[in-house]
Amino acid sequence: MRRFLSFRDFDWGLLLLVLVLCTVSVLEIYSATLHTKYVGFHTKQLLYISAGVVAMFIISKVDYHRLLDWAPWAYGACLLSLIAVRLVGHKVLGARRWISIGSMQFQPSEWVKLVLILAVARYFANLGGKQLEWRDVFKAFALVGLPMVLVLLQPDMGTALTYSPILIAGLFLGGINIKQALILSTAGILLVVGVWNSGKVLKPYQKARLTSFINPDNDPKGSGYQIRQSLIAVGSGGIWGKGAEKGTQTQGDFLPIPHADFIFAALSEEHGFVGAVFVLLLYFFILMRLIQNAQTAADLPGSLIIMGIVAVLTFQIAVNVGMVIGFMPVTGIPLPLLSYGGSSVLFTFLALGVAMNVRMRRFVN
Amino acid sequence: MYSDFGNRGEKLSTVKSTVVQYGILLMMLALAAGLWRLQVLGADNFRSLAEQNRIRKVPILAARGKLFDREDRLVVDNYPSVSCFLMREQNRNVDADLPLIAQGLHVDLEQLRATLRHYRAAPGYQPIPIKQDITADEQAFIEAHRNELPELETIDEERRLYPRDGFAAHLIGYVGEVSEEDLNQSRYAAYQPGDVVGKAGVEETYDELLRGQDGSRDVIVDSHGREVGYLRTQHAIPGQDLKLTIDIDLQRTAEVALGDASGAVIAIDPRNGEILAMVSHPSYDPNAFAVRINRTDWNRLITDPRHPLMNKAIQDQLAPGSTFKIIMSAAGLQEGVAQDMRVNCVGGGSFYGRFFHCDKHHGVLSIQQAIPLSCDTFFYALAQKLGIDTIARYATALGLSQKTGIDLPNEMSGIMPSTQWEMKNYHQRYYPGNTISVGIGQGETQVTPIQLVRALSGIASNGHLVRPHVVAADQLPAQFRQAVLDSFPGSGDKSVTLSEDTWMTITDGMAAATTTGTAAASHIDGVDFAGKTGTAQVVGGGDTHVKGGARTPNSWFVGMVPRRNPEIAIVVLQEHGDWGSLSAHIAQAMVTEYVNKKRQQDHNILDRASVSKPVEVGAIWSDPPPVDRKRHPAADQAEVLHGGHFFVDPGQAKKAVATGLAPLPAWFTASLPLRRQERLP
Q1: Fewest CB within a 10 Å sphere: which of A119, B535, B565, B671?
Q2: Buried b vs exposed e over B516-552: b needs ≥16 C-beta within 10 Å?
Q3: Domain B248-602: assigned CATH number
Q4: Do B43 and A239 touch (CB under 8 A)?
Q5: Cα B405 to Cα B388: distance, rounded to the nearest angstrom
Q6: At a CB cut-off of 8 Å and minimum separation 6, what does B538 contact?
Q7: In angstroms, rounded to a whole number, what is the distance separating the alpha carbons of residues A144 and B59?
Q8: SS3 B446
Q9: What is the DSSP string of B385-402?
Q10: Where in chain B is the domain with CATH 3.90.1310.10?
């Protein structure tokens, strides 16, 4: 069974790309926090990355088939932890997202992402790639929808939205037909419009945040402030940027949270178009490499797991960079591997570890 | 169990994964295009926005020029103060902060909103003044709320400190924020909303010189409005100090002498037109205007029936009463009708079928007696002989019914009736009977105190009339001097030809008035003091003679020292002050002050002697008591007096005084103007 399994099959090229990105992250966090109360966060980020790399190696050793077997149990545990957050979680800035065990604090909604990837992959692999019945589609919806609603209630719209690409990727690769896709997207649009106009589900501040990116000058001090400052930061960077530690928007504290959600704006200001495109290229190569791994996977579940990971990462990159350059509303979704944050870094490395896991076992059987 | 998955043999569709790859490529291209749009195409625009974000233009306000009196004594000073401004370049919506700001700075919320609305059209970089002269508490509030209210900025400035109790308030004027109406006028073209400008008096006329040039500083700030550094500083240029022509000692004597009475006092040097003192009562506190005046105080000032804001010295237009008889005399003597005129006063006389009263039975009078006794009957007769148009011609030549051209804003021109004037204003022929009351300064004639003193002292100066002014012209730039002359048109410097006889008769007549005539009580021994009283009836009023009553006549006095070619001329007006002789006492007090001061100066050898020539001084002195021995009464008797002559070199002595190294003795500071002693704590 375990023939040929060795770290020689580990995707060292992918790891190299990821570590280059992590280096960029640490350097930019250092620069962006230099004159803020977050000074020194780059060392913490370094710690998270190290922990992430270790976790990546560990998870890659466990056969992903075993992980798939555990998925239903983990899924149940996820639901329980999300309910627990609701009951005993910490309230930070009006939202219950954190739970503490001893002195450790963590956000269950982050690792729910990984479990959902596995659970969805398992679900569609079991269907075996045949044409989907409506019944199967609804089951998939329920599978993702349940934790999504629980996270939405925290309320944490950003993270809840990152669950949706997992479902969409699963449906797309799992064998949905065009007619079903059309009906579902129509229903989805109607649902979004309905929710928007009902005024019950979304709080006014959430709505304001979602629309202010269209015209940030309408309310430059309020909801449009962050978008506006971000656009100024990115735009004033020019082609070559203002240089590390020289971004006036970043260093003058005009840019909100320049080490986390808006790190791409800080990077774009200090390193310009060249630096920003360099980072985008890194992401592009990482994603392409992951898709290649999915294509060469030994079996369908392995492919589906990697594609789920690709879907989540792509979604996060699109939404975060889109937000920074004014294409998308402010949602609080971090940029994978670049934004500061333990939970996010850990999730990304675990996800990459699972992808490595699949790759290492591509010659099995 | 898990091995089941692998055995089915299904694989990922290559088509679908390729679709995903292309989808990702498209997304990346879209993001790169977005970056291109911002960073390459929009770079310049965003760069300037980034600059605006972090650079704040903080004005440095220029200190206004100080005002000194003719002897270089400080009259109007500045004191350091802190003002609060609101900066709008923060790109924040400040409306939500207004209640907090209003509460912390103790300003009215509605007024604050109104202020912001007022500045809506002004350019965004311009700070909005919210509150001036804030207290230490309010300053602490701003510092404590730097993070919540980054838009608030404090600016140090020099604020006006005026003499207290309205001392010379009308002459000095006051400053205030430039009003919206002012900004629409061409002379305020260079001003911006929020600028402080002179609103009255010298402050208004000489605003351009006094205000200086504001500077500014580009301050680098972070998003909380905290200053991080400076880029460029353009220093403010302080305004020019101005020397007024007034003499503080004389001004104070006039202020004290007029007291609570409503009226005006002017002392002028008729040789050059310098105003030595100008008082208008009741007065107001200009310091209340230096910070924005509150509405109730303002309303009280503008509704007060005694018109505290009015500079009565140049704006009050009243019947001149008997003081007009000097102008009548000039006209009569020049026309050759008054010299040989003899009038029998029987307590009045009949003219045009009506009996006009005089206050006494003067008997037969010549003009030499009629002037000091102020006999109405004589001047009724003279008026009838001259006719209204001759009277008007002389009065106009002597500056009545025209502005004098004094360098203070809003001077009034007065009225001199004539047939032409009657036709123009009432479209009817002049009724000759009205001439009779014009002859004693009643009827429709209206003069301002400044006109009256200029005309009468002009006659005493043998027809030489001068343009009054409160700021000596030699300290002004030539262009500005001309601008002042142009913006205050008036009869200005001029000469009226008078015969020797006219000049002598009138001046002797006025001198007799203060020795044996109506103002005999105001006679000063050893001083050639000449003058003329006036008791002008109030229109519609009776002759009730209750001082201060609404129907009590206005009390005038014009006096001068010496009688011919006077050095000083004084006009006193007390509204409803009853007899003109009461006003003469005020002039008497001022003349006493003036003459005493002159004599002190004349006898001050240091002032009198030329610098090059030592002055011989005789003196008697005793030896200083020995230090080692205790003083006892016997010691005084033992003192030996010495006498002798020695020379003092005034040049050196003056230098020693001028440097003023030694502390000033108490008597010296006591005689200094009010201002010095009353520094703010």
Answers
A1: B671
A2: ebbbeebbeeeeebbbbbbbbbbeeeeeeeeeeeeeb
A3: 3.40.710.10
A4: yes
A5: 26
A6: B550, B551, B552, B553, B554, B576
A7: 60
A8: strand
A9: HH-HHHHHHHHHHTTTTS
A10: 55-243
Token couple for B143: 């510092």
Residues A135-146: what's their mean pLDDT? 91
Q: Which residues of B touch A63 (CB under 8 A)?
A: 2
The residue type of B385 is K
Any chain B CB within 8 A of the CB of A282?
no
CB atoms within 10 A of CB B508: 16
Q: Rounded to an integer, what distance in angstroms lies between the CA atom of residue A191 and that of residue A189?
A: 5
Which residues, listed in sequence order, are joined to residue B345 by a DSSP beta bridge? B363
Asked if residue A325 lies in contact with residue A234, where contact means CB atoms within 8 angstroms, the answer is yes
Class level of CATH domain B55-243: alpha beta
Between residues A89 and A331, the one the model is more confident about = A331
CATH 3.40.710.10: which residues of chain B?
248-602
- Over the stretch A224-281, which tens digit does the pLDDT of each residue have? 778 888 999 999 999 999 888 888 888 877 888 888 889 999 999 999 999 999 999 9
Task: Give the pLDDT mean for B146-173.
Answer: 85
CB contact under 8 A, A248 and B25: no
Residues of chain B contacting A284 with CB distance shorter than 8 Å: 24-25, 28
Structure confidence by residue, pLDDT tens digits, B491-534: 888 888 899 999 999 999 999 988 888 888 888 888 889 989 88
Q: Which of residues 83-102 of A touch B (CB under 8 A)?
A: none
Q: Which chain B residues are within 8 Å of A239, Cβ to Cβ? A: 39-40, 43
Tokens of B60: 């440095």
Q: How far apart are CA A66 and CA B206, in angstroms?
A: 93
pLDDT digits (tens, 9 = 90+) for B589-622: 999 999 888 888 777 766 655 556 666 777 777 7
CA distance B95 to chain A (A): 10
Distance CA A308, CA A294 (A): 10
Amino acid identity for residue B509 in this structure: G
- The answer to whether B386 touches B331, Cβ cutoff 8 Å, is yes
Using a cut of 0.90, tell me whether the model's pTM lies above it: no
ipTM here: 0.92
Q: Does the pLDDT at position B274 exceed 90?
A: yes
Chain segment B285-315, per-residue pLDDT in tens: 888 876 666 778 888 888 888 888 899 999 9
Helix (H, G, I), strand (E, B) or coil at B1: coil
* Of B2, B13, B24, Cβ closest to residue A66: B2
**B interface test, pick of A63, A67, A236 with most B CB neighbours within 10 Å:** A236
3-state secondary structure of B157: strand
Distance from CA of B307 to the nearest CA of A (A): 49
Q: Which amino acid is at A341?
A: G
For residue A322, list chain B residues with Cβ-Cβ distance below 8 A: 31, 34
User: What is the CB neighbour count within 10 angstroms for residue A7?
Assistant: 11
Reference B378, options B325, B327, B435, B431; nearest CA is B325
**What is the C-alpha to C-alpha distance for residues B204 and B212, in angstroms, rounded to an integer?**
14
B33 touches chain A (CB under 8 A): no
